[in-house]
Amino acid sequence: MVGPERAAGVLAERLTRRLAAQPGGPEAVTDPVGWLRGRGLPRSSPCTDARCDEGSLMHTGAACERCADLLADRRQRRTRVSGQVRAELPDADSETRRQAVEHGLREVVTADLARDEQRRRQAAEAAAARAAAAQRAWAKAEVAERVRRARPCRRCGAPEAGGLCGVCRAQEETETLIRQAVAAAVAGSGRPVDSGAAAALAADAEAAMRIRVQHAYDQTRKGGGNELSAAVAGRLAAESLLHECRRSALQALGHGPEAEEEAGQARAAQWRRRHLHRTVEAAEQAAEAAGREARERTAEHLLAVRSSAWLAAQTPAALVEEPGPRGQAAAYAAGAARAVHRASRPAPAAEAPVRTRENASAGYRRALAVLTALRR
Ligand SMILES: [Zn+2]
Ligand SMILES: [Zn+2]
Asked: pLDDT category, 25, cuts 50, 70, 90?
């Protein structure tokens, strides 16, 4: 309880104390080993605090509060019983009264013990019931988890995939990221989200992104990666594409007319409060900072609003289209084909000529050019 460094000291004190308290002194101990085991060494405390020995705490030496409470309880009990005996036997002599008090105390102690035992039993029963309920809940959850894990992948049908296998999960996440990245590209372009120009730009951007994702996938496969690690590599590529698109969109929107206007107003408002600054330079700096913040805020706002508008304007059918059990490469190719197909519908011919996979290399060059321009 006190650690190995202090244990020897605590035990030495304990033995000294108990030898001194031994009736007849140390010489009265005739069986040293028996005395050490029975009386000298064991911790002696009526309370439940394991650090307590004879009413004081071993690690601090302070009086044990729990023991003090126990002692106070006992005194209270004795006072109460004495009061009762005095009231019941007002004319009894002191010896009769003492016996009556002892008898009353024994009864109270017995009753207390019985009550404590009853409480202990009830607590044990409650604990057992709680443990049983927890056990039942755990078993139920275990069954549910087994059932969940046994479910096949809802996309590719792979068995025991927990409803969605790792490859399909990565593919789904990749699709979501690509959609968000395309939305950011459209939002940053400043073209109205329902225009053919926006649709054309989206198709080009999406095709370029799919090439990047496919490249990441192919590289991983070539390097010996399995289907899952390749799918995850594709998702990581899509993540960085989204990041790039958001960054360029924020840059573009931050220099658009809306942001310029907001920045100008914020700068002017701050400049009107220039008397609050000690120097002209400080006032100018504050005005510049206010303008910068307004510009960034406006760009963030426009990006969020226009991205959402673009995503909402896309047909839900195209968003939930299932690639089916055809493998990763086919999935990306199909996605790219869909992107080209979508663009060919609303876009005017001059902006987005209908492209097929036959002239894919021209499409590839153009997509790269668009992506480069987007990044700029
Ligand atoms: Zn104690
Ligand atoms: Zn799957």
From this structure: confident
The three-state secondary structure class of 352 is coil
Tokens (6 digits) for 254: 């931050």
> Quick count: other Cβ atoms within 10 Å of Cβ 268?
12
Q: What span, in angstroms and rounded, lies between the C-alpha atoms of 174 and 201? A: 20
Give the tokens for residue 160: 């025991």
What is the chain's Cα-based Rg? 42
- The string of pLDDT tens digits covering residues 250-297 is 999 999 999 999 999 999 999 999 999 999 999 999 999 999 999 999
CB contact at 8 A, 182 and 318: no
What ranges do the domains of the chain cover? 4-65, 69-144, 166-375
Task: Identify residues whose C-beta is under 5 A from ligand 1, the ion.
Answer: 45, 47, 49, 52, 64, 66-67
Rounded to the nearest angstrom, the distance between the alpha carbon of 65 and the centre of ligand 1 is 7
Question: How many C-beta atoms lie closer than 10 Å to residue 173's C-beta?
Answer: 17
Give the residue among 300, 312, 204 at the shortest CA–CA distance from 247. Answer: 300
Ligand nearest to the CA of 44: 1
Tell me the one-letter amino acid at 113.
L
Question: Please, is 166 exposed, middle or buried when counting C-beta atoms within 10 Å of its C-beta (0-12, 13-18, 19+)?
Answer: middle
Looking at residue 353, its pLDDT comes to 38
Q: What ranges in the chain are assigned the alpha helix state H? A: 4-21, 32-35, 65-88, 94-150, 166-189, 196-222, 227-254, 257-272, 280-313, 316-319, 328-344, 360-375
| Average pLDDT score, the chain | 85
